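Thread: Modeling a multi-component assembly for a lab meeting

Hi all, long-time lurker, first post. My supervisor asked me to bring a structural picture of a complex we are working on to next week's group meeting, and I have zero experience with this. I have the sequence lines for every component (226 residues in total). Could someone generate the structure of the whole assembly? Inputs are pasted exactly as I received them:
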Amino acid sequence: DAGITQSPRHKVTETGTPVTLRCHQTENHRYMYWYRQDPGHGLRLIHYSYGVKDTDKGEVSDGYSVSRSKTEDFLLTLESATSSQTSVYFCAISERSPNTEAFFGQGTRLTVV
Amino acid sequence: KQEVTQIPAALSVPEGENLVLNCSFTDSAIYNLQWFRQDPGKGLTSLLLIQSSQREQTSGRLNASLDKSSGRSTLYIAASQPGDSATYLCAVPKGGSQGNLIFGKGTKLSVKP
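Re: Modeling a multi-component assembly
Sure thing. I ran the full set together rather than chain by chain. Output:
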């Protein structure tokens, strides 16, 4: 299995609070992605990174920000959590080219109450 | 806009049966196609990656085929086992520099003992 660790694995938070999810990889892959998975919508891209300090928006980026200060770490921040952000969040990595095999973390289940 | 469709949404078969899962995509200009398995409450496990130049890829009891011209891929599972029960997802890269994956909504497979 690819070395991808997401933390925390589960979190319950209150509406309006900031939340940060962490993705840590040991594969030295250049590309990192944050997806959310929701019933009826499948997996959708939130943000991605193509190198240290290089990030860009995905399909559903509103209300989220990201940072990547080291190759191995990609942080996803919900600036002010809302109930619509209750979801399962997955981190993924891929190697030098974006069009190579992707590997996923185990996911973080976030509940906003 | 690339769209990925998986039919059927759910499938139940008796143990030992050979089965085929289907995946179709609207834009045939893909770099590759990837099949994943997802167990309940877990992350995505990469099963097979087929490059655009390939017609088939095999791993154990799994065989994936790709027909770019018709926009179709199939995942063949031989001699199914209860442990194969999971949701199977196919995905293609969006293309360009982003490289994120566009997913189908999956086929939920149940193999009955």
